[in-house]
Specification:
mainly alpha, 7 helices, 146 residues, Serine Threonine Protein Phosphatase 5, Tetratricopeptide repeat, TPR-like_helical_dom_sf, single chain
């Protein structure tokens, strides 16, 4: 992380990627999440969406809130070769916001997750209301035909 941000060391994305990879290989969940993030963003390594989602999903499943947020965003918007799936996005956002062994260490990530979750839940509720209204109007048409 220090080489990623230039915190106490000169910023070096390639070296940061190598350290994240070593952390992943040693079984550190945050290292796995950081490795996926490097691959998504092309930071210190050639961008590779399929491999990034392997690492991010693995880290999210293991309790990384940051990786859960990335995974949720991929499902919410259909990014990185992942098909759009709002139910999966909601699942990962909820995990990111409260059920992770490794919570977000950056407050704005939590705010982003909450805002996206609120938007998805609202669109889900709106779609459910539209479906309910259209089925009610169809019943009314059928009743008037009788």
């Amino acid at each position: 992380m220090k080489y990623s941000r230039g915190s106490g060391f000169q910023k070096d994305p390639q070296l940061a990627y190598e350290w994240h990879k070593k952390a992943h290989e040693a079984g550190h969940v945050r290292g796995t999440a950081a490795l996926g993030s490097c691959l998504v963003n092309g930071s210190g390594v050639t961008q590779c969406f399929p491999l990034s989602m392997v690492y991010l999903t693995q880290a999210a499943t293991s309790g990384s809130a940051l990786a859960a947020l990335y995974t949720a965003g991929a499902f919410a918007m259909g990014l990185y070769g992942i098909p759009k799936n709002e139910k999966e996005a909601i699942f990962w956002l909820r995990k990111s916001l409260g059920n992770c062994a490794y919570p977000n260490t950056v407050d704005h990530n939590e705010a982003k997750a909450q805002a996206l979750l609120d938007d998805l839940l609202k669109s889900h509720d709106d779609a459910a209301e539209e479906g309910s209204a259209s089925s009610s109007s169809e019943e009314s048409v059928e009743d008037s035909d009788s």
